[in-house]
Amino acid sequence: MTIPHPTTFNDDYEGRNAAKEAWMRIDGHMNRKDVKIEAPQSLSEEELIAWNSFGNNDGEFWTPDKNMTDVERKEWKYQRYIKDYLRCVKAVDDAVGEMLNYLDESGLAENTIVIYTSDQGFYLGEHGWFDKRFMYEESFHMPLLMRYPKHITPGSVNNDLVLNIDYAPTLLEAAGVSIPDDIQGKSLLPIFKNNKEPFRDAVYYHYYEYPYWHHVQPHYGIRTDRYKLIHYYYDMDEWELFDLKEDPNELNNIYDNTQNQDLIEQLKIRIKELMHEYKINKSMDELKEMTEIQIPRLYKKEPAN
Predict the structure, then answer these.
(1) Which in 54, 61, 125, 234 has the greatest CB count within 10 A?
(2) In whole angstroms, what is the distance from residue 92 CA to residue 87 CA?
(3) In which region does residue 127 sit, left (phi positive, over 0), alpha (psi from -120 to 50) or beta (all else)?
(4) Which residues contact 59 (CB under 8 A, 6 or more apart)?
């Protein structure tokens, strides 16, 4: 079958310069390895790395067929990518199902906490992209499903703002272990008990790595239940504001709208408070220095003759 495109598949990135500059477009930056093209057998390991990675950077053009139009090439890469991704997810689902069945059949389910999660989400064609890194919703979100029969109602949904730093204190409290004072997250157990108090009013995000691997500008930001404010600060000094209720696909940057200035000031104050709370209250120069620390990746190469 042909997998349909996301709504933002042909995003033009208007009003979002960092998005326009990123090297993660399916049509232009998806290399041979990304779409599982088999490499020639005669390549050395160093040559194989170069062969696989060609297309990562702007100006490195690769196509499966030079006769394809731009639209056909993007469609070919998307279909190959999305189907491979969905096959992988199906395999994960099957394996998780086997584990849950075992817990049920062995009588362990009632006293076992099961957490299904991962790192940040991957773009599946949204904004014409693959990979992640940006603070936009698709890669900002993380899957979090939990089964804890004694405390969580099956099929229930919670929309509180939670973070992966909340997992450790949750498990510690559930196991009856005291939570160290220096843990930054919060236990989720009050949520399981249907506590009506707001769990968290905002979440903080920060991305540092640049220019590798996908030329995504370092940025930090804040998300509340309705708004998101992002600051790109390394090679540019630009802000983005989105109203997630009116613009869930984050296509309309409303930062420069004069009527939003009070809201922006409030969000900037909250960002500073969270940066202080998470011990990241540094100057712009210090933040840039963190990006400039390069950690080389080592690859095994053919031994010299």
Answers:
(1) 125
(2) 9
(3) left
(4) none
Question: Which tokens belong to 87?
Answer: 């096959």
Worst-scoring range by mean pLDDT, 66-70, 166-170, 172-176, 196-200?
196-200
Q: What are phi and psi of 258, to 5 degrees?
A: -60, -30
Domains delineated in the chain? 201-295 (3.30.1120.10)
The set of residues, in sequence order, having a beta carbon less than 8 Å from that of 44 and lying 6+ positions away, is: 301, 302
- The DSSP bridge partners found for residue 114 are 147
Peptide linkage before 213 cis (omega within 30 of 0): yes
Cα(62)–Cα(28) distance, integer angstroms: 8
For residue range 30-70, what is the model confidence (pLDDT) as tens digits? Answer: 888 888 889 999 999 889 988 888 877 777 878 888 899 99
Sign of the C-alpha dihedral computed for residues 97, 98, 103 and 107 taken in this order: positive
